[in-house]
């Protein structure tokens, strides 16, 4: 698996699973009816932020991550990231590789920590992955997310020092 900078030419490969994940309404706080144009504009971020894709040997996009500063000004030393793995390629280490990549990027860019602002508590695979990579739950916003199957569930704020 290769992780490389995403380009606008990658968007047609990202959009189908991006749309499927967002429309499912189980893990992201994005609008469920997000248009392709708005999704692209939100995901393909401009420098100094970055968006990457994980591709297999044949060039198939397996997943994607975007990395950015979490806050501006005096809070700009904390990074954040978001990840989407094509469900057709889940369970193959793509999420772990992307998360590790973003941690390394943030450290190299001089960030002091990474913070995830809204990890849905029912997204147990993500929570387990993040914990295994050294993230801790700092707190949980009760009923901060309306899950389509579980109703109102908590949203974790997760943090890891770099």
Automatic annotation (TrEMBL):
Pfam families assigned to the protein according to its UniProt record, in alphabetical order? Acetyltransf_1 (PF00583)
What is the organism field in this record?
Answer: Streptomyces scopuliridis RB72
Signal peptide from the UniProt entry: none
Every copy of the N-acetyltransferase domain together lies at: 1-159
Q: Which PANTHER family match?
A: ACETYLTRANSFERASE, GNAT FAMILY (PTHR43138), N-ACETYLTRANSFERASE ACA1 (PTHR43138:SF1)
- Please name the InterPro entries in this protein's record: Acyl_CoA_acyltransferase, GNAT_dom, Mito_N-acetyltransferase
Instruction: From the Swiss-Prot or TrEMBL record, give the protein name.
Output: N-acetyltransferase GCN5
Q: What CDD domains is this protein classified in?
A: NAT_SF
One GO molecular function term of this record is: acyltransferase activity, transferring groups other than amino-acyl groups
Read off the SUPFAM superfamilies from this record.
Acyl-CoA N-acyltransferases (Nat)
Q: Is this entry keyworded Transferase?
A: yes
Record's keyword terms, sorted:
Transferase
């Amino acid at each position: 698996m290769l992780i490389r900078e995403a380009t606008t030419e990658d968007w047609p490969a990202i959009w189908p699973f991006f749309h499927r994940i967002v429309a499912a309404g189980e893990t992201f706080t994005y609008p469920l009816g997000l248009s392709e144009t708005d999704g692209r504009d939100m995901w393909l971020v401009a420098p100094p932020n970055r968006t990457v894709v994980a591709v297999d040997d044949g060039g198939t996009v397996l997943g994607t991550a975007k990395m950015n500063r979490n806050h501006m000004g005096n809070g700009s030393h904390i990074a954040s990231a978001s990840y989407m793995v094509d469900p057709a390629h889940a369970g193959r280490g793509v999420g772990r590789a992307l998360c590790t990549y973003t941690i390394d990027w943030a450290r190299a860019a001089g960030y002091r920590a990474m913070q995830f602002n809204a990890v849905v508590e029912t997204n147990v695979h993500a929570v387990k992955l993040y914990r295994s990579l050294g993230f801790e739950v700092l707190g949980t916003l009760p009923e901060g997310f309306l899950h389509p199957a579980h109703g109102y569930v908590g949203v974790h704020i997760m943090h890891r020092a770099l």
